[in-house]
Amino acid sequence: MYRYDEFDERLVAERVxxxxxxxxxxxxGELSEDQFKPLRLMNGLYMQLxxxxxxxxxxxxxxxxxxxxxxAQIARKYDRGFGHFTTRQNIQYxxxxxxxxxxILAALAEVEVTAIQSSGNCxxxxxxxxxxxxxxxxxxxxxxxxxxxxxxxxxxxxxSYLPRKFKIAVTxxxxxxxxxxxxxxxLRMHLNAAGQPGFExxxxxxxxxxxFIAHTxxxxxxxxxLLSYVEAILRIYNLHGRRDNIHKARIKIIVNQMGIDRYxxxxxxxxxxxxxxxxxxxxxxxxxxxxxxxxxxxxxxxDASVELDALxxxxxxxxxxxxxxxxxxxxxxxxxxxLSLKPPGRPPGDLDADRMEAVADLADRYSFGExxxxxxxxxxxxxxxxxxxxxVWEALVRLDLATPNIGKLTDIICCPGLDYCSLANARSIxxxxxxxxxxxxxxxxxxxxxxxxxxxxxxxxxxxxxxxxIGILGVDKRGQEYFQLTLGGSSDESASLGDRLGRAxxxxxxxxxxxxxxxxxxxxxxxxxxxxxxxRRVGIDPFKQAVYGHAAVRAVA
Amino acid sequence: xxxxxxxxxxxxxTFTTVxxxxxxxxxxxxxxxxxxxxxxxxxxxxxxxxxxxxxSDEPPAMIAxxxxxxxxxxxEFPVFRDGRGYSHAxxxxxxxxxxxxxxxxxxxxxxxxxxMVRAGFDAFEIDSDDxxxxxxxAAGEFSVWYQPAADERPSALELRLRS
Lengths: 557, 163
Prior knowledge:
- The complex is a heterodimer.
- Chain A is an alpha+beta fold.
- Chain A contains 18 helices and 21 strands.
- Chain A folds into four domains: 6-110, Sulfite Reductase Hemoprotein, domain 2, CATH 3.90.480.20; 134-291, Sulfite Reductase Hemoprotein, domain 1 (2-Layer Sandwich), CATH 3.30.413.10; 305-398, Sulfite Reductase Hemoprotein, domain 2; 413-556, 2-Layer Sandwich (Sulfite Reductase Hemoprotein, domain 1), CATH 3.30.413.10.
- In chain A, 38% of the residues lie in helices and 17% in strands.
- In chain A, the strands form four sheets. In chain A, strands 16, 17, 18, 19, 20 and 21 form a six-stranded mixed sheet that branches. Chain A has a five-stranded antiparallel sheet with strand order 1-2-5-4-13.
- The radius of gyration of chain A is 23 Å and the shape is globular.
- In chain A, 54% of the residues are buried.
């Protein structure tokens, strides 16, 4: 993992003291709430319905056991004993006092964690494939470039007051687990003929009330040019992005208004001017950062698949978990283990302090002390010996972190919704809880297979409903909470936006509607088809009929 | 009260900012881009230094050919969260090589001074009871920077390579 050097340490410490002064100025009334707002946002502090929320960065989803223990302590000391892992691989605390925030940030700085730019109209936490450096299908490790971008974007003098927030994601695998096509900038790593990595650059993706899949603005970018090219994109956006309407201020709007070709022309002209400037990334710095991401001390282990087969035969529950939550590792004898934060009846992504510490202990004992946060709001132990899998599973069962539902119907992405958020139209968490209780049968989940279900409590789409294979959007109908379903969304390398199924439903009808959709899929799927494949083959009509009946299909068509 | 700060010191403003219909005073003046375009010839005939005030939707490309006769470019922040002025200042310094005064005007908050200094501003109109003290605190909040900008400060990356 990356470790701070003297420069990183000093910058973060100075930032904490700066915010302490700003909070002081606010508390003394020297700053108005309007003037203070962007300052607190750029330090991760939001005003929610009931209290301040603090969003803490987990850079590219990578976390040490020590940092996880610090999260637990903060949850106990400053919050109500739990935290919430988010779709930007961050953690949020929901019950924070403004005057305590500088102390929290100082405590986080001790373990090299910040809340810098986790909110605000600036470059947010850089996200990445949660299996970076471990995945069997990976071409190149994105973490070194994520760290370069983290440093480049922190306290950027020119880009801290952009028209709107700005999100960057990087994947080094052909199978995109980082949703790069739904980001302001998405970076997809490829290898050239010499086997050296470079980037395909996507721009203008995003969700919210006007969702867009990103366009490829450049097929190949050398790593040495990463910062100058990103700067050119940001400068053109800062100059041309709309500032007249907050809902039209993201880069996706301006890219699609002027067209990707025009945007590319502007970026290329600017890039030509700055590509050979001080922004050129020296190989020495890439190497310096890369050294922090050197593989841990793996043992040379025999492949344990025979023993694992025997364990699975003797223990169907272990077998179910292994099939669903364990991912192939690039090093023989090791596995990647997903910890499901989606047990039945609990808010997706929530974790209490005791469990945070237990996860940290497991990471130390079984996984070189490293933990990852996924954008689907789960946790990962990156390097578990196959021979330890059974023990780890038993420990996770005791912690209720072993629900075998990773990538399945109840692995739900869900925003905080009207339980916390002042923007929401509807309570999304109870819908997720209902569905997780409704689909308790883990054998059924396995039969249904890979299926993403995402829930947003309003059209701002923090719950990624546009790109769920099944999306659920909370809407307000004359003061009542209703839920609008979409089908066919996807955030991977074949990214697509979901299609509206029909009229919105009351909360009580949602589980039955999902039942009808799932049963229709099971009835019409062909061998080996995932839900998304079937949907793309047969289209929306069979699902409309199943949910609304024949008459209703005509009415909404 | 509003003060003009240069190099951290309160400085007497020798420039008069002239409105659209104001009669031209004697001495140094700052005019809007609109007036500059309309009266360029006449303005150049009079004694005194010249400055142009750019609104946030008026990029420096609009005065690129005039920069060698301008002593001041005033870059306006109509509201503090309109961040175009930072790009305008950097472009003035880095693309056009402007060596005159780049003045931050409009809603200029103390909290933004350290960014403005790095973006290439060297004069600031700020509201403060003790502008020199406030400027010293705000501009001195950081001693390390991650990225190159319009100033000469080395980035952390450059310092690492030197050591």
